[in-house]
Design a protein that fits this description.
With 72 residues, this protein is mainly α. Helices cover 74% and strands 0% of the residues.
């Protein structure tokens, strides 16, 4: 029997989008250091994934406060 319950779907999505955000920031830094303007696309992707992370975190907290499932 596992010690921790499986994570909620919104927590998992928030974690995935946070990972994408961190990787996009790293890619933007590498692109700008190499002198490529492609880093602007990575910055935009980091902003989008950051907003998605906050959305899923807030959605999960609201669902937990109401005691309802976010998937149903």
């Amino acid at each position: 029997m596992p010690l921790l319950p499986p994570p909620a779907p919104t927590r998992r999505l928030a974690l995935y989008t946070l990972v994408v955000c961190v990787l996009a920031v790293a890619a933007a830094i590498v692109s700008f250091v190499q002198g490529s303007w492609l880093g602007i696309v990575w910055v935009l992707l980091a902003g989008l994934s950051s907003n998605m992370t906050w959305y899923y975190v807030k959605r999960g907290r609201a669902a937990a406060a109401q005691g309802t499932s976010v998937t149903g």
